Amino acid sequence: MTTRENNKNIAVDAQQIIDFIRQTFNEPSDFIGLHEPRFFGNEKEYLLECIDTTYVSSVGKFVNQAEAFVSELTGRLSIAVANGTVGLHIALHALGVKHGDLVITQPLSFAATSNAILHAGASPIFIDVDDQNFGLDPDKLRAFISEQCVIKGDHCFYKSTNQRISACMPAHLLGFSCRIDEIVEICNGAKIPVVEDAAESMGTSYKNQAVGTFGEYGVFSLNGNKIVTSGGGGFVVCRSEEDAKKIKHLTTVAKVPHAWKFFHDQVGYNYRMPNINAALALAQMENLERYIVAKKKLAKKYKLFFKDYNNVKFWSPSANCQSNYWMNTVEFRSKDERDNFLSISNGQKVMTRPLWELINTLPAFQHCKTISDEHARRLQECIVNIPSSVIDYE
Ligand SMILES: *Cc1c(COP(=O)(O)O)cnc(C)c1O
Prior knowledge:
Layout: H1 14-24, H2 43-53, H3 61-74, E1 77-81, H4 84-94, E2 102-105, H5 112-119, E3 123-126, H6 138-148, E4 149-152, E5 155-158, E6 163-169, H7 180-189, E7 195-197, E8 205-206, E9 209-210, E10 217-221, E11 234-238, H8 241-251, H9 275-285, H10 288-306, E12 312-314, E13 321-322, E14 328-332, H11 335-347, E15 353-354, H12 374-382, E16 383-386
């Protein structure tokens, strides 16, 4: 690896890393958060406009403008929703995922990825992540489908239980993209639609195409910890007018438009993004490109710092991935070294976090089938995220 060429075989210790973080954030003693929102733009102006016009709730111009912004950013149709989790749920629902089905996903992700599968009535079936990017491993996916599944008519079935596999939901984590083109190609061949969990990845591209736009549906989150935030919120993106209409209808209580009549043609969901959140979303997204520039700069500083050390690896995106640099990520050689760093840094008010506990080990998911998870297990033990808020904003 080129970053190891000048490696002097020296180890960095926890205190040196913490000192570097404090110096980089120009914060000698106070708390440093992992990822704090920044409001440099039109946030206050747009929010005041909501209040002045009384349009704070389920309709308003900012919902339309925020959707148009995401369409422009991704080249896809876009529907604003209340958060990323419900976006994932409604995408699965729209695909016809139902009770008794299986949905392929990865054990390493935020719990919401798999929660949405349970919300749709289906069960996740876990396939390992790629140890180069934290996303679903296409090679393991291919092997699973060819060895353990059968395609009958328009559907794919898991041979050992004869359950239908009605979707595949890979996640793009921390700003890294999974090999989504390969995943979509494999799934297309097996008649499995793909919903991309791009919750953390607004602004990330893979081979110069926005993530979230490779599968049938893609979902972004604008929760408070993401690269841009609407307080709470999300967007579902899709290709066809028909799919977009379906999502809009389902997320707006399935009310058939009429001047005064309340007629709902199916069980709908109140999954709308309120106008007041959309106002915040729009103002934040207007600065997305500038945030990415600032975050890329920070990642570069970290990369330089870690370059000479052999006991901590700083993760950089692959050449195919144009990252949004959401979360700076380092890897320790062992769980012990990782835990030592977590304890020292958090003890000194520098917020650092491990990856999520593997979803297939959580109580709600222990009954679900795991096909493979060895990379996920190793990464879960050795990875730490370090402070990543926007600094150097110009
Ligand atoms: C944040 C997140 C979600 C859920 O988004 P919310 O808006 O918080 O509901 C889903 N998946 C991943 C990977 C996330 O990071």
